[in-house]
Amino acid sequence: MACDWLLIDGSSMIFRAFYGVPASVRGPGDQPINAIRGFLDALARLIVQRRPRQLAVASDQDWRPQWRVELIPSYKAHRVAEPVPPLLEPQMAVIFEILSAIGVDHLGVADHEAEDVIATWSALTAGTVEVVSGDRDLFALVEDPRVRVLYPEKGGLAVVDEAEVTRRYGVPGRRYADFAVLRGDPSDGLPGLRGVGAARAAELIHRHGGLAEVIRDAALGAADRDYLARAMRVVEPVLNLPVSLPAGRRDRYPDRPEAVAALAARYGVRGACDRLVAVLEELGAEVACVSHVEELDPEVAAAFAVWIVDWKLPLFEAWGGASGWCRQVRQIRRQARIAALGRMDEADREAAREAGVTMRQFQPWLVSRLRALLATQQPAASSEQPGGGAPAGTRTPRILLAEDNAVNRRIAVLMLADLGAKLETALNGREAVALVAKAPYDLVLMDLQMPEMGGIEATRAIRRIEAATSRVRAPICALTAGVLNNERDQCLEAGMDDFLAKPIMKAQLLEVCRRWLAGHLDASPKQVSSAGGSS
After folding, report:
1. Which in 98, 168, 250, 290 has the greatest CB count within 10 A?
2. Phi-psi bin for 197: left (phi > 0), alpha (psi -120 to 50), beta?
3. Closest CA to 187 of 139, 129, 123
4. What is the C-alpha separation between 456 and 194, in angstroms, rounded?
């Protein structure tokens, strides 16, 4: 279910990206970029998975505010020795510089943590909110059905709503902060009430109703009451910072294209930036369907960024056919992206190219192909700039299959025979890396278990090559007998983009290829060519 707002605890997620992506991931000049790439890719995945209408990122302007330390001196004291790892510190500034150039709202407030910014934003909007954070303090914001927290765990993001708070801690869903104060939180250096563990904390809350009632009615000494009052101010996120709710999205992305291009080149993260920009264009996307000629006015059509057009539809006759209508739309909105559906002869294809059609599809088409249009296609040249961009289908895409089993390789070659792509094969991960080093591929199908070098190690090596040479990031699809949650996480952390379970079915294999090669495949089937290792 799409939410109105996706609020990201940037500091928390950047730390997770830093430790989740190998330090060996380096950019030009051997500078560390693992946190940069990991965070940008994680943000793109979150947008695709959660489908928010608006997005903002909060950061720790002060990870250990003095006012919290004065209330509880032990607050985060154990982290003082090394608050930010030396290799991460320079990357944090770069991440926020890239977000600014792309157009992602982000904010830190002096003397406050990211949780305080998120809490204030949540209080300022009446819409539905999903908070992404590894900080349990934000569980205090959970409010059914409006606010919930997406908490990173080993198996993925845990959705924490009031029922989940109750299941985990045995207290009413909106009483997490009360529970944390009573029990304590070692991760934040909060000692809790002496002699009170999880069970006792839950019991006190159930008996008295909440922390304020515990302070008022329970048999406590003056020192305990004083501690509880101070700890509550430390644990509860601040709800009333002097900030406003950001816009949450832009009319277009990136906000400053030249700055994004310069940063991407400087740090070797062009692929990560491109992916984030592509998915940001879906923020707040509206879908409409037209069936009458009155609804096809080009001025109205220009309000939409993407059009999927049946090329033979009679409705277009008033504009001289679909090509005439597309040209008028392009005159009003040059950056519109248009996909043509239906079989087209050579004259149709030439007319589509001249009209600036971005890609062509056969019917029936699938949702995944529409996502490919939204996520991977760049706007075609306008009709006023003929020849400004390569039309769809003018280049044969290159696929690399890394598979050590000769039978599996042969079956894949046969399955892909009519795709219209050039297929090359490698017998192991080391061969695959060597082939990629020579020339880029449009798609890599990577077996996980191979001799000499497995698929995950090979993927990491390929991503390093791309970073070092500033290449466009090639999609890599894992081929495996069964993807468990931890194995899937390893694949994603290594830089893989998709998964295919063995035994591979032809329909699934073709769908994956067409999804990632959208815009490269020609409208007419071709015989696949095979090169590389033995098959």
Report:
1. 98
2. beta
3. 139
4. 48
| C-alpha triplet 436, 462, 273: angle, nearest 5° | 110
DSSP state of 308: E
CA distances from 289 to 1, 252, 508 (A): 21, 22, 29
DSSP characters over 356-406? T--EEEPSS--HHHHHHHHHHPPPPPPTTSTTSSPPTTSS--EEEEE-S-H
CA distance 161 to 317: 53
Report the alpha-carbon distance of residue 29 to residue 12 in Å, rounded: 27
Contacts of 108-112 with C-beta under 8 Å, sequence gap 24+, read: 108/58, 108/59, 108/60, 108/61, 109/61, 109/241, 109/243, 110/61, 110/62, 111/61, 111/62, 111/65, 111/66, 111/67, 112/61, 112/62, 112/65, 112/238, 112/241
**Mean pLDDT, the chain, whole residue set:** 83
DSSP code per residue over 310-347:
ETT-GGGGGGTHHHHHHHHHHHH-TT-EEEEES---HH
Q: How confident is the model at residue 190 (pLDDT cuts 50, 70, 90)?
A: very high
pLDDT above 50: residue 363 = no
List the one residue out of 493, 484, 504, 487 whose CA is nearest residue 401. Answer: 504
Peptide bond into 145 cis (omega under 30): yes
Six-digit token pair at 228?
Answer: 């509880």
What's the pLDDT score for residue 381? 32
370's CB contacts (< 8 A; 6+ apart) are 308, 339
Contact residues for 49 (Cβ-Cβ < 8 A; gap 6+): 157
DSSP code at position 73: T
Peptide bond preceding 52 in cis form (omega within 30 of 0): no
Helix (H, G, I), strand (E, B) or coil at 152: strand
**DSSP tag of 417:** T
Residue with tokens 């071709």: 526
User: In the structure encoding, which two tokens stand for residue 244, read together?
Assistant: 């406003």
User: For residue 452, how many other CB atoms are within 10 A of its CB?
Assistant: 12
Region of 307 please: left (phi>0), alpha (psi -120 to 50) or beta: beta
- Residues 463-514 have pLDDT tens digits of 888 888 877 788 999 988 654 556 777 787 788 888 888 778 888 888 888 8
Max CA separation in the chain (angstroms): 88
